[in-house]
Amino acid sequence: MTVPERRTRPRRYGRRFDLRATAVFFGLAAVGLIVVGWVGRMAVDVAQRRPLWAVVLVLGGVVAGVACRRGRFGFSPSRLARRTTGALEEATATALDALEEQRSAMPADEAPGVEDSTAVADVGHEALSPDEFEQAIAGLCVRDGCAEVEVVGGAGDLGADVVAVAPDGRRVVIQCKRYGDDNKVGSQDLQRFGGTCFTVHEADVAVLVTSSDFTAPAVEYAQQCGIVCVNEARLRDWSEGLGPAPWVPTPLVEDGTDSSGQAVQ
């Protein structure tokens, strides 16, 4: 007796589910979405702050798209590079011209990158706040070639508002007194400064600058201790370039003062 052979259907093996591959795929997709969102946000920010550069990037993208489209009929890397470079150079030149026009049309007091180091020469000293007065004195030090200029005034400064290194290497310690015309610097101010400028701050040149003037006892004390006194008149000459900086030695006259009437050692 013959038993008929049963035909078996071939099994179809489906693709097995791979949890690791699926997790990696969704992870990469999430990273891609984050990158796309970040790039889009940066592009919007650049377009708002630097519209000219946005135009440059758009032109570059258009050139690249046109080049890729023409590449179907014959792609030439050298020709694409020349065209892209030319387009970028033209766009950059246009952007720079526009920026130059904006800068030339901007008022001088609003021009970027200009430090307010000439504030003492432009406005009256009495119009400055104490902090602005210190900054202005530091600006004069920088203008006249000092290095390591630093404003250190504040609580616990022990009498030093501005410290610097003169062009000849000496350490300059300056105390700033932004007083009104009716308030002169007295001997007590000089004594407090004289007690710290040399021993604590190790000054080679100690200077007290004021927007007013000094009393006679203060001038006498400064002469004894070797502190350079710069009153409003001498400060105005210094800021306008009509007089020497406080650390520059000045010739003495018979009464022991310099040509501006300030006591020196």
Topology:
Elements: H1 19-49, H2 51-70, H3 77-105, H4 119-122, H5 130-143, E1 147-151, E2 162-165, E3 171-177, H6 187-194, E4 205-210, H7 216-225, E5 227-230, H8 232-239
Parallel strand pairs: 3-4, 4-5
Antiparallel strand pairs: 1-2, 2-3
Overview of the molecule:
- The structure is a single chain.
- It is elongated, with a radius of gyration of 37 Å.
- The chain contains eight helices and five strands; from the N terminus they run αααααβββαβαβα.
- The chain folds into two domains: 20-108, no CATH class; 119-239, Trna Endonuclease, Chain: A, domain 1 (3-Layer(aba) Sandwich), CATH 3.40.1350.10.
- Helix 1 (19-49) crosses helix 2.
- With 265 residues, the protein is an alpha/beta fold.
- A five-stranded mixed beta sheet has the order 1-2-3-4-5, with helices on both faces.
- Helix 6 links the parallel strand 3 and strand 4.
- The chain crosses the membrane at residues 21-40, 52-69.
- GO terms for molecular function: endonuclease activity.
Percentage of helical residues? 40-55%
Give me the count of strands: 5
User: Quick one: biggest sheet?
Assistant: 5 strands, mixed
Q: What do we call the CATH topology of the largest domain? A: Trna Endonuclease, Chain: A, domain 1
Give the percentage of residues in beta strands. Answer: 5-15%
Describe the oligomeric state of these chains in a short phrase.
single chain
Under the CATH scheme, the architecture of the largest domain is: 3-Layer(aba) Sandwich
* Overall pLDDT level: 75
**Poorly predicted spans:** 108-122, 253-257, 259-265
Distance between the termini: 138 Å
Q: What structural class results from the helix and strand content?
A: alpha/beta
Topology pattern, helix = H, strand = E:
HHHHHEEEHEHEH
Counting structural domains, the number is 2
Q: In order across it, which strands form the biggest sheet?
A: 1-2-3-4-5
Region (Disordered): 246-265
InterPro entries: Restrct_endonuc-II-like (IPR011335), Restrct_endonuc_IV_Mrr (IPR007560), tRNA_endonuc-like_dom_sf (IPR011856), Type_IV_Methyl-Rstrct_Enzyme (IPR052906)
Transmembrane segments: 21-40, 52-69
Pfam family, one: Mrr_cat
